[in-house]
C-alpha cells in the first residue's frame, strides 16, 4: 500500500528516569535539552538517612566478623580437644553450632552492608546511556517516592518516525514496508525508513493506529520533535498482505502458523506466517499466505499434519481470507 502520512521524530528508546529509592530531592544537575553521557550524575537525593544506614550496616558487619573470629578459634581448640577425648560430644556439637551461627551471621551482615551500599549509591541519579533530557517532572526540595519520574530521557542514536494511521488504511501497512521520510525543517534531506511496529490496538480516543518507522541512516540533523512527511512505498513485500479470522491462527510453540489445505490431495500442512497486526476478531498477515490459499478457519487445535479434510465455505463471507 502506498500513501502519505504526517508524523514526528522520536528516539528509538524513550523512557522516564527515576530514583530507585525515595527521599528529598537535594540537587538537580541538568535541565531539559541537556545532552548527557553514560555515567553522568543527573540529580541527587538527600543522602543523610542512607549514610546512617550504611554506617549501621558497617558496624554490624564488623561485630559479626569479630564474633566469627572468636567462634572459629573456639572451634579449632574444641576440635583438637574432642579428638583427645578432653571434652564431651555434646560440647563439641555446641561449638560447631556456635561456629555455624557465627558464619551465617557474618554472611547476613555482609549482605546487609552491600545492600546499604547500593541504597547509598541510589541516592545519585545517573544516566545509563548517552542521550538527551527531554523533560523535567521534579523540583528541588520535593519529596519523591521510589520510581517517581524525575526526567524524560531519550537515547542518542536510532531515530524513529511516529505516524497515526486511520483504521481504514492500517490494513494495507505491513512491518518491513519501505518508506521515504522528508522534513519541512530539512528540505534538502530525504531519509530511507521502514515500518518497524504497528500498534495492535487503536487509540481509544482518536481511533488511529500508531505506526513506528525506523530511520535507516539517521544523522545529527534529525532532531527530536521535528514534523515529518512519510511516503510509504507500495510493492515491497514478496507476499501480499492477507487478513484472516483470529480463530484460524495456530501457535507452534512461540511461532504463529496456519493449517494450509493442499490443493492437490486436500491434506493439511502447517504453514508458518508473519503477523503484522492482531485485531479483536481478525489477524493481519504480512507473509506466509497469499490470496486464494485455503486454510482451516476453526478447530485449529484438533487437526494434525497430513490429515485429509473436506473444504467447506465459511458461513459468513466476511470470514474468508482477504
Automatic annotation (TrEMBL):
<dbReference type="Pfam" id="PF25954">
    <property type="entry name" value="Beta-barrel_RND_2"/>
</dbReference>
<feature type="coiled-coil region">
    <location>
        <begin position="54"/>
        <end position="81"/>
    </location>
</feature>
<keyword id="KW-0175">Coiled coil</keyword>
<feature type="domain" description="CusB-like beta-barrel">
    <location>
        <begin position="162"/>
        <end position="234"/>
    </location>
</feature>
<dbReference type="InterPro" id="IPR058625">
    <property type="entry name" value="MdtA-like_BSH"/>
</dbReference>
<feature type="domain" description="Multidrug resistance protein MdtA-like barrel-sandwich hybrid">
    <location>
        <begin position="20"/>
        <end position="150"/>
    </location>
</feature>
<dbReference type="Pfam" id="PF25967">
    <property type="entry name" value="RND-MFP_C"/>
</dbReference>
<feature type="domain" description="Multidrug resistance protein MdtA-like C-terminal permuted SH3">
    <location>
        <begin position="241"/>
        <end position="300"/>
    </location>
</feature>
<dbReference type="Pfam" id="PF25917">
    <property type="entry name" value="BSH_RND"/>
</dbReference>
<dbReference type="InterPro" id="IPR058792">
    <property type="entry name" value="Beta-barrel_RND_2"/>
</dbReference>
<keyword id="KW-0813">Transport</keyword>
<dbReference type="InterPro" id="IPR006143">
    <property type="entry name" value="RND_pump_MFP"/>
</dbReference>
<dbReference type="InterPro" id="IPR058627">
    <property type="entry name" value="MdtA-like_C"/>
</dbReference>
<comment type="similarity">
    <text>Belongs to the membrane fusion protein (MFP) (TC 8.A.1) family.</text>
</comment>
<protein>
    <submittedName>
        <fullName>RND transporter MFP subunit</fullName>
    </submittedName>
</protein>
Amino acid at each position: 500500500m502506498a500513501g502519505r502520512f504526517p508524523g514526528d521524530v522520536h528516539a528509538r528508546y524513550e523512557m522516564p528516569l527515576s530514583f530507585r529509592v525515595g527521599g528529598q530531592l537535594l540537587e538537580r544537575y541538568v535541565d531539559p535539552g541537556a545532552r548527557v553521557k553514560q555515567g553522568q550524575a543527573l540529580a541527587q537525593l538527600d543522602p543523610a538517612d542512607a549514610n546512617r544506614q550504611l554506617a549501621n550496616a558497617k558496624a554490624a558487619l564488623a561485630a559479626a566478623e569479630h564474633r566469627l573470629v572468636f567462634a572459629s578459634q573456639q572451634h579449632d581448640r574444641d576440635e583438637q580437644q574432642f579428638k583427645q577425648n578432653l571434652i564431651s560430644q555434646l560440647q563439641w556439637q555446641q561449638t560447631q553450632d556456635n561456629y555455624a551461627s557465627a558464619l551465617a551471621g557474618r554472611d547476613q551482615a555482609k549482605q546487609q552492608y552491600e545492600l546499604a551500599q547500593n541504597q547509598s549509591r541510589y541516592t545519585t541519579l545517573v544516566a545509563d546511556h548517552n542521550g538527551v533530557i527531554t523533560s523535567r517532572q521534579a523540583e528541588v526540595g520535593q519529596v519523591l517516592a521510589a520510581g517517581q519520574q524525575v526526567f524524560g530521557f531519550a537515547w542518542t542514536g536510532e531515530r524513529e518516525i511516529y505516524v497515526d494511521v486511520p483504521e481504514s488504511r492500517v490494513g494495507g501497512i505491513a512491518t518491513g514496508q519501505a518508506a521515504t521520510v522528508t522534513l519541512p525543517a530539512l528540505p534538502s534531506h530525504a531519509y530511507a525508513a521502514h515500518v518497524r511496529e504497528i500498534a495492535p490496538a487503536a487509540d481509544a480516543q482518536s481511533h488511529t493506529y500508531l505506526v513506528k518507522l525506523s530511520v535507516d541512516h539517521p544523522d545529527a540533523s534529525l532532531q527530536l520533535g521535528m514534523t515529518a512527511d512519510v511516503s510509504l512505498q507500495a510493492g515491497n513485500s514478496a507476499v501480499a498482505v492477507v487478513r484472516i479470522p483470529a480463530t484460524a491462527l495456530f501457535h507452534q510453540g512461540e511461532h504463529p502458523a496456519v493449517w494450509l489445505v493442499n490443493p492437490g490431495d486436500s491434506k493439511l500442512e502447517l504453514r508458518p506466517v508473519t503477523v503484522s497486526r492482531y485485531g479483536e476478531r481478525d489477524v493481519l498477515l504480512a507473509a506466509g499466505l497469499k490470496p486464494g490459499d485455503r486454510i482451516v478457519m476453526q478447530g485449529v487445535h484438533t487437526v494434525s499434519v497430513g490429515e485429509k479434510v473436506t473444504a467447506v465455505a465459511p458461513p459468513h463471507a466476511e470470514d474468508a481470507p482477504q
